[in-house]
Amino acid sequence: MESRAHYDSILDRSKRITWQDDCYVDLQSTPCFVSSKAETEELGWIQKHQDQLQRFITTSFLEEMMTHLRKMDVLNSAEETKVKEAGRLQDQVNMFTSIVSAKDSQGSDALRAFVQSSDSQVAQLIINHESMVKEHKEALRRRHEQYRDRDSIICPKLNISSRTLLLVDGLSDIQQKEHDLMQVGATRGRKRNHLRQLGLTKLLEPLTRVSLPPRVSLTVGVAGIGKTTWVRHFLRQWSQGAICTDVSFILPFTFCELNSLEKVSAERLVKMAFPHLTDPGLVLSSSCRTLLILDGLDEFRCTLNFSDAAPCSDPKKEVSIDDLVTNIIRGNLLPDVAVWVTSRPGVASLIPGGLVDRVTEIPGFSSKDIQLFLNHHFSERDFSSKIWAHLESNQILMVMCYIPCISWIVADTLMYIMQSETQENLPRTCTELYAHFCSMKAEVGEPRGREPVKMEQLHGTNRKLLGNLGRLAFYGLLKHKYTFSEQDLRAYGIDLLLTQCSLGAGVLVREESAFSTTYRFTHLTLQEFLAATFYHISSKRALFDLFSESTMSWPKIGFQNHFKNAFQHSQQAEDGHLDVFVRFLTGLLCPAAIKPLAGLLALGKDDGNQKAWAAGFLQGLLELQHTELLRSVEEDLQLGSLAGKLTRAHCVVLGYLLHVSAECSEQTNLTGSLNYATVKCLLPQLLYCSFLRLENNHFKDDVMELLGSLLSAKDCHIQKISLAENAISNKGAKALSRALLVNRTLTSLNLRNNNIGSKGARFLAEALKMNQVLVSINFQNNSIEEEGAQALAEVLHCNRKLVSLNLCSNQLGDKGTVALAEALTVNHTLLSLQLQSNSISNKGMTALTKALRLNRGLVSLNLRENSIGVEGAKNMALALHENNSLQDLDLTANLLHDEGVQAIAGAIKVNRGLTSLHLQWNFIKCSATKALANALLTNATIQLLDLQENAIGNEGVVFLAEALKTNMSLRTLCLQGVSASTSGALAMAEALMRNQTLQTLDLRGNSVGMEGAKALANALKSNRSLKSLNLQGNGIGESGAKVISDAIRADAPGCVVDI
């Protein structure tokens, strides 16, 4: 049996190491197949510790082992040399163990004796590592087993195992400066752009083959998003051996636990938390891979000071707890230990970016996730669909549900109300929701029969408890304190036994650790709501400033004075941590919000002026249900008619609409509505708009600095922005150019009718050389001149993303046009180039046509209102013989004359790309029209021909009419003001009887008369393709117009006629 087991071990590839491609050296093999019982036992010891030997042996320890075995005459010099020449340390260890394994029992005894007698950390890890890890994992499993039910979600698709973190390149401005609820409201559950997903299994792995694993990882997420849940899931997965198998020890700490400590050393901290780890120095050494988890930085009572913290590198030295954490993150202490920190974004921004190797973000629920949650949370689909419908009609509640913790609160509260027999209206605001939630928690467990329990009959204990909880919540909020000890609860008059009743257990969560027992509110917003209820009740009778808990202050009498004081404090708070508190405080002025708490709060008489007085405050406008103003602003926003209407109240409502309404932020028309102050006020909301129209706002360069910061933000969602009709100069263009260097969302920029000049064009051109997102830019009427055109031409040489460039009315001249033309010879991605009104003559046209012979990308070229003559037209004709990619050519208002147009007509006969040709105002007469008509006989691609305001006369119209009898491609023919009369109309009518493809015919400003109009109307009896016929200004008269109109309406109801 022993021989057979030995033979099986030889065949087991997992117990071998690769050696020069296909050759293998067995780690357990011996020279002979017959081995003694003792040798088998020794082989088992080496085999048992093989992984530890390979993993922990260092170069110095290998030297010590070989020296010892040389002294024992177990190893000779040749074998020692062979080990040293094996290559890498791992290969040397493999060679060494192979040689020792091949020796008799004396060699194995000597090796084991040496390792067991050594007091080095390497030896201890080789001997004890496996048992230490096993014991540690078991301890972690026991510690976190109590949270398994709390962390699990009944919907498998929403479990953490099926979700991923988002890898981000830093914190956005809104994450650093705004309240958590404002962040979620601004993003509305949408993921930030261009983010890579990262599973928990790869949290500690390098991102590429050449990069290193992160030492300090930071995971951020708003309150209630599930940071601690993710940590506990990670610990369970690791302890089961499912992830990060190369990590020997994970040491999880919460900042709630650390709050109870004053001074401690790193080793003592580990010993206190994990007493089964008898040698903390071994766990924290560089010999094994250890991960230190610091969960909930936002709950730490100390503010980390990375600039003034006393340096410490000794793990045995006791220092203050904040200095200990600071030195660990900085790397002065435990430099070989990986660190994973979790935090809310605002506090996480206090860690210098240079100390963090990897930042990840926990995504909230999407709309689809919320639906999945509701469907799995309720067994009855009817409840799920009703709650979903309610959320859809009340977007502020939908926004809050992007936070998983609040999804539970919303779902349970709404279901409780629907199941009750009171038939109460469902809450429509955050304040109403939390009022019902607290009422529900107070009522749960009370005797309930068929008759609903009246609020005033609730036990008096709940009223006292809620008041004390509100006081604890308020003063905790002022101190940025979100976790509380048992001593804190007693200090605020809270009986610990009451924390186990329905209300206490419903709003407080108890956490036990090796250091202490702590309490926190179910969610941050619940703490803010209870703080608001305390302030709302207390301010009606308080004589002194409630914000001064233990210090004397000037008397403050009356609710309004206290309310103003609360608002002033919220405005002064830089981190916005009182914003939602004030929002709840305002919401409590609404009778519908306070009603569910009537039995739980000691309510005094209402001040009749309170509701009207508070209407201008923050987002209380919605809480107070000022729906008329809300509807008015929403309608004006959709119509783009907010100009002159943005009072302070309107700005508050507008900010709210952009905050919660996807429709309003999809296309936001603020034309003629804003100034510097309002833009600054609305910046956080504008960040998540998709299409921003900011035209005709008289913006100057200072506003461009604000918009530049907006476009530079990492979580900017703006895709299109129009800044037309403003007063932006080159300084403003410079601010925009800086933003374009880092922006990764903007695809369209409209700067029409500003004054950026050639200097501003150069700034933007430098940015466009780097920007790989912008596809359309409009510089119309900005005086960029030749110099600006040359700068943009350089852009076209290297930029392959830009597809539309509008340079109309910019005084480019021939030199600027030549520069652009040269760029077009190598750029084949630009699709549209607008060069209207730029004083381009034949010289510039010649350069463009040479480029068109080589270019195969340009689709639309606008050369209206220039000075292109016959020579330029002939050159264009030559280009059209070769170029079949150009589809839209506009030569309106140039100097082509008959000779030039005849050349173009010759090219159209063979060209198969052009679909639209504009030749308005070009002094064209009959002969050129005849050439065009002949071209239409063979051309099958032209769909639009515009010959307006050319004196082609009846004869020219007749030629075109004859062509229409054969041509099957033309859809639009524009003949306004071409000096046509009755005979021309009769010819066109005859053509329409045969042509079944023309859809639009424009004959405005001619003299077709009554007879010609009747003929055209009669033609429509058989023509079924014409959709639009314009006969305005043709001397038909009102009575004649009615006759013609009635006839056409009867014979061709599908055709729209303008007479």
From TrEMBL:
Q: Give the record's GO CC terms.
A: basolateral plasma membrane; cytoplasm
Tree of life domain: Eukaryota
- Please name the InterPro entries in this protein's record: CARD, DEATH-like_dom_sf, Leu-rich_rpt, LRR_dom_sf, NACHT_NTPase, NLR, NLRP_HD2, NOD1/2_WH
**Which GO MF terms does the UniProt record name?**
ATP binding
**Cell location:** Basolateral cell membrane; Cell membrane; Cytoplasm
Q: Start and end of every NACHT domain?
A: 215-346
Coiled-coil-forming residues are none
GO terms (BP aspect): innate immune response; regulation of apoptotic process
Keywords for the protein's UniProt record, in alphabetical order: ATP-binding, Cell membrane, Cytoplasm, Immunity, Innate immunity, Leucine-rich repeat, Lipoprotein, Membrane, Nucleotide-binding, Palmitate, Repeat, Ubl conjugation
Please list the residue ranges annotated as the CARD domain. 38-130
Membrane topology designation: Lipid-anchor
Q: PANTHER family recorded for this chain?
A: NACHT, LRR AND CARD DOMAINS-CONTAINING
The family note in this entry says:
Belongs to the NOD1-NOD2 family.
Protein's recorded name: NLRC3
Task: Supply the source organism for this entry.
Answer: Champsocephalus gunnari
